[in-house]
Amino acid sequence: MKSFGQSGRPPRPNHLPEARGEKRPAGSPPPVTRKPAIMQEPVLVLNATFEPINVTAVRRAMVLMIKGVAQAEEVNHTHVHSASRALPVPSVIRLLAYRHIPQQTRALSRKNILLRDRNTCQFCSRILPASELTLDHVVPRSRGGRSSWENLVACCYQCNNSKGDRTPEEAGFALARRPRPFTLHTSRQLMRLIGNKDEKWRKYLFY
Ligand SMILES: [Zn+2]
Fold it and tell me: Which of 69, 95, 121 is the last residue of a domain?
């Protein structure tokens, strides 16, 4: 199979024959300007056993396909054009070799906490962009609260300021949900949330 080249990256537009001033052979499809946004679209990743395990971006999914690590199970109607051919954009890919997914939780990070809490302030329930959210220690650090999955929540700046150095009870705040570690169960819930919008994902997520 002819790949995108040594780097495994999709070609830049000047790799298209037209960009080099070459004439397109008769009957070949017209060139399509690649839209970078497409490369960031979510792709569902299945294990070799068809078990959904992750969500990745089109760019990463295509690299896995080109490397022969994964194959497309569902494709979009869109294509990404290389110099020699058009590649269908995947919507669902499957790993060709079974990968053991440990039951351990994900790394504790700001990004993962915002993902777990779906960018929702856990005190006022507003959904906000990541830039307008901070992390709140439910039990403040000054009171012995730890930086853990169970004690960190997504929080808007207003709630964070008005809560200050108090516990939710002292501040008269209630948590929207009890914070839990980010497990495979959490990932699956998120995949289902995204999958609701994509018909092609549904059969792999709802069973
Ligand atoms: Zn808030």
Answer: 95
Which one, of 66, 110, 175, 64, lies nearest residue 119 by Cα?
110
More confident of the two residues 117 and 193:
117
Residue 207 to residue 202: CA distance in whole angstroms: 9
106 CA → ligand 1 middle, Å: 25
- 120 Cα to the center of ligand 1, angstroms: 8
- 42 alpha carbon to ligand 1 midpoint, in Å? 28
Q: How far is the CA of 194 from the centre of ligand 1 (A)?
A: 24
Pairwise CA distance, residues 50 & 108, whole Å: 27
Q: Ligand 1: distance of its center to the CA of 153 in Å?
A: 11
112 confidence band (pLDDT: 50, 70, 90):
confident
The parent domain of residue 66 ranges over 13-95
Task: With cut-offs at 50, 70 and 90, classify the pLDDT of residue 185.
Answer: confident
Q: Is residue 72 part of a domain?
A: yes
